[in-house]
């Protein structure tokens, strides 16, 4: 199967847009068991994203004519389906359309509905990251197991909603429009900058690498906090407090390079990183004190970290079933 064939497959498109759980599971299983299919799917995704990211100038007159034509085709097709099961419109049109024309139709329909709503949804699955180029030229590196919903409309403030973690590189716009990242507890407002946002169950973190951002606490609309480069702002859901401190920003952004950094980490910090970054269970025995732990490790293999900890602290680190125990 060629990548362009996948672009014409309803089931594959349902997998790509995550619009149907059954089709999603079907293609995920095929990816896991067939390396050739996985490569073809990856190639098809690149083609689709490249085409969808391309800029197409359409005059108002052309757009009006295209909409009228498309609506007429839908209405005529629906009349013909009164006695037979309905199928997607572009599937009905495929027998007489070439691959290029079919892709154009799919992309036009996607562009049409996106232009109407200005909204797109992006996912990064567990174990993989994803880079997104937004219509304004800004880029977003979406960390694993995260979701980003965007609302980008010309002439209005650019807004996105983040569930998980992402690194943003924002382009300043000539019209001065703001870029706003909404999380569960904070709104991050910027003009042009690079920063990392991570929303966890008990806290939300913002780390600023360059530029300037302004934070709005949703529970206190009049509370605004300005961040400077090299700062971390953390909102605790337990205490309801927002605090700032200077940090080594690379520790918080190294996941983009597939790395996790430990810098002068003690027992509690080691446990915290293992839980938050590697998603493993950690038990710290009361009174456990370890010397400072340093190192750079792959973000996708916790066993490398555990092995290093065992060698650094002999007899103090134990992996038991699915739990890592830090002993006294």
Give the low-pLDDT segments.
Answer: 54-66, 86-106, 108-116
Biggest sheet, open or closed, and with what strands and sense? Answer: 7 strands, mixed
Tell me, what is the CATH class of the largest domain?
A: Mainly Beta
Spatial order of strands in the largest sheet: 1-4-5-7-8-11-12
Helix content: 25-40%
Helix count from the secondary structure assignment: 10
Give the oligomeric state: single chain
Q: State the domain count.
A: 3
Query: How do the helices and strands follow one another from N- to C-terminus?
Result: HHHHHHHEEEEEEEEEEEEEEHEHEEHEE
The value of Rg in angstroms is 24 Å
Polypeptide structure, described:
This protein has 328 residues and is an alpha+beta fold. It has 3 domains: 115 residues, no CATH class; 129 residues, Jelly Rolls (Sandwich), CATH 2.60.120.1440; 69 residues, Phage tail protein beta-alpha-beta fold. Helices cover 36% and strands 31% of the residues. It has a 7-stranded mixed sheet with strand order 1-4-5-7-8-11-12. The protein has a 7-stranded antiparallel sheet with strand order 2-3-6-9-10-13-14. Strands 16-19-18 form a 3-stranded mixed sheet, covered by helices on one side. A hairpin with a 6-residue loop joins strand 4 and strand 5. The longest helix has 21 residues. The protein is flat. About 13% of the residues have low confidence.
